[in-house]
Design a protein that fits this description.
This protein is α+β, with helices and mostly antiparallel strands. It contains 24 helices and 18 strands.
Length: 588
């Protein structure tokens, strides 16, 4: 796990790479990789690579980056883990490849030599990397299917700058800090900044599941190497063939396989443990007792939101070495400056991950597994029932004369939500219904100057981009909602926040339930079983998860943010909007 950077002055008239800029970018990422750091600049001064390393696989200096292959023709910087690197290494060695380290990073270099851009199809893991190919004078850039590992670029038409974080690119001093209205609008709409936008006009995200080349002509067209929507579409056509094997048995087999891969490490691996089915299920499926960490807030002590007692009971029954870490309001207040400094893009989330990562790092762990992705995979969000109902209802209303007016009148009488007007305006499409369900502000409410909001919304194209996530059509209501949740909420908020909040504490978080290969295996079952699969997952360990876990009402990872940050409600009674405004102030 690392922080990486790459600079490429691809235009003939561009100035050479400045070592000072490269080192400043790299230094900003030091918490991501405190174990080692390095830079490399080509002989002609046109290309520079840098890395900060958190040593997880191959702890020797042989795994340090930037890493050059045995021929000296390829150089790489890589952030992430390739879980199937041992199988890939064996295959490459049979083909004549030679290695000088046991790192998964070197496997990537040899895989590129053997397969070129098609190498990404063979990878199981989380990754963001840049490979400089001296022979072809080009750079290959790729990011994993779900976007677990971040990667950003700033391209001024002469030089492209790439790094693991937005703030690292800014630290180099050559990238504009002009705020992007589209990023601001996206943040206030959803509580996070949707890809490919960032909060700054000059910086964009390398989109998840894409790869591209950069040569003397600049950045080439990105190629999609994975589509969640397509996986669900194929799964829908295959679901008839999975009914012979009990669902719990299938989940046990495939999730256990993913877990085995995600536990590959040369250092101990711990686990975030809540009282929910996803994290307890992963711990139960592990082949050995794990070191587990539970977060507790003193404001919740003994209440329904306090998960510590259930987690402690479960950990004891599974012979885990367990730690419950209690966070106080004073600690929250003390940590806020560091929290905002580490926050790479505006988000209304991340407090929970910040503290559980801090607690895990305090236990001397460098790696922890998390149950992130279980709700998206197993359909346990309210959106899985709400969105289809909204789309069906509004689609029908539009077909009936006077239907929209009648629906609008009915919603107005209910007066249950300030979002009610948005239901009739946007609810007939999946992207529109999704915004109604997940939105923080509606488009007409944005706390921005009118002209800035208009420009931001126009460039953001939220509805069009949301609908594009459903191309090709996942072919089922479950698949459509699962795709939207994975590509919008999980990718832009949960995974991104997990990355910056954990790496601020030099901790790598692994997500066995967010795995491209696992989704391919489970999609036929999920399409067929829908949200019932969560209970099948609870049945999959032997023994099955206890009733005090599986029957507990779903609460999510609750934080006493409203009280501790002294948030006041706005005109609609929504307090999180106050937090969003406070967050945005730190980026302006």
């Amino acid at each position: 796990m690392c922080g990486i950077a790459a600079l490429f002055a691809y235009d003939d008239g561009a100035p050479s790479i400045r070592r000072e800029e490269l080192e400043a970018i790299n230094e900003r990422m030091r918490p991501r990789g405190p174990d080692a750091g390095g830079t490399w600049i080509s002989d002609d001064g046109r290309v520079g690579l840098a890395s900060r390393r958190l040593a997880i696989i191959d702890l020797t200096p042989e795994g340090d980056q930037p890493l050059t292959d045995t021929s000296g023709e390829l150089v790489i910087v890589f952030n992430g883990e390739i879980y199937n690197h041992r199988e890939l290494r064996a295959r490459l060695e049979r083909g004549g490849a030679r290695f000088h380290s046991s790192s998964d990073t070197e496997v990537l270099l040899q895989l590129y030599r053997a397969h070129g851009a098609d190498m990404v199809e063979l990878l199981r893991g989380m990754f963001a990397f840049c490979i400089w190919d001296k022979t072809w004078q080009r750079m290959f850039v790729a990011r994993d299917p779900y976007g677990i590992k971040p990667l950003y670029f700033a391209d001024d038409g002469r030089t492209i700058r790439i790094a693991s974080t937005v703030k690292a690119l800014l630290a180099g001093g050559a990238v504009s800090r002009t705020v992007d209205p589209a990023g601001v609008a996206g943040f206030f709409l959803t509580g996070t900044v949707p890809e490919p936008f960032t909060i700054f006009e000059s910086i964009r995200s390398v989109e998840a599941g894409t790869a591209f080349f950069i040569d003397v002509n600049g950045r080439g067209k990105a190629r999609d190497h994975y589509s969640i929507a397509k996986v669900f579409q194929r799964g829908c056509s295959q679901h008839a063939f999975v009914t012979l094997v009990p669902p719990a048995m299938q989940l046990c087999e495939f999730v256990s396989e993913s877990l085995v891969y995600h536990l590959v490490s040369d250092v101990p691996v711990g686990a975030f443990l809540s009282a929910g089915i996803d994290s307890t299920g992963l711990v139960a499926l592990a082949k050995q007792p794990m070191r587990t960490v539970t977060m507790s807030f003193d404001a919740f002590a003994g209440g329904a939101s306090d998960e510590s007692r259930i987690a402690e009971r479960f950990a004891a029954e599974r012979n885990c070495t367990h730690t419950t870490r209690v966070v106080t309001r004073d600690e929250f207040t003390r940590d806020l400056p560091r929290f905002f400094d580490a926050m790479d893009q505006p988000t209304i989330d991340g407090v929970n991950t910040w503290f559980v990562s801090k607690a895990t790092a305090e236990q001397g762990l460098k790696v922890a597994i998390s149950g992130i992705g279980g709700d998206e995979l197993f359909g346990s969000y309210p959106s899985f029932t709400t969105l289809p109902r909204i789309v069906r209802g509004m689609s029908l209303a539009r077909k009936v004369p006077g239907g929209i007016q009648a629906a609008r009148a009915a919603l107005a009488m209910m007066k249950r939500s300030p979002k009610a007007p948005a239901v009739t305006r946007y609810g007939a499409t999946w992207g529109g219904a999704y915004l109604v369900q997940r939105g923080l502000y509606m488009p007409w409410e944005l706390p921005m100057a009118a002209d800035e909001a208009e420009e931001g919304l126009k460039r953001l194209e939220f509805f069009e981009r949301a609908e594009a996530m459903l191309d090709p059509d996942p072919s089922s209501a479950f698949g459509r909602v699962a795709t939207l949740e994975a590509t919008l909420y999980m990718r832009n908020q949960l995974l991104r926040d997990t990355d910056w909040a954990s790496m601020a504490h030099s901790l790598e978080v692994r997500t066995p339930l967010v795995d491209a290969w696992l989704l391919r295996q489970l999609a036929p079952l999920l399409t067929n079983e829908g949200s019932a699969s969560k209970q099948y997952f609870a049945d999959s360990p032997k023994p099955a998860l206890p009733d005090y876990v599986r029957n507990r009402p779903k609460t999510g990872f609750v934080v006493p943010l409203i009280d501790w940050a002294q948030l006041e409600p706005d005109g609609t009674g929504t307090r999180m909007r106050s937090w969003a405004k406070r967050v945005m102030e730190t980026f302006r």
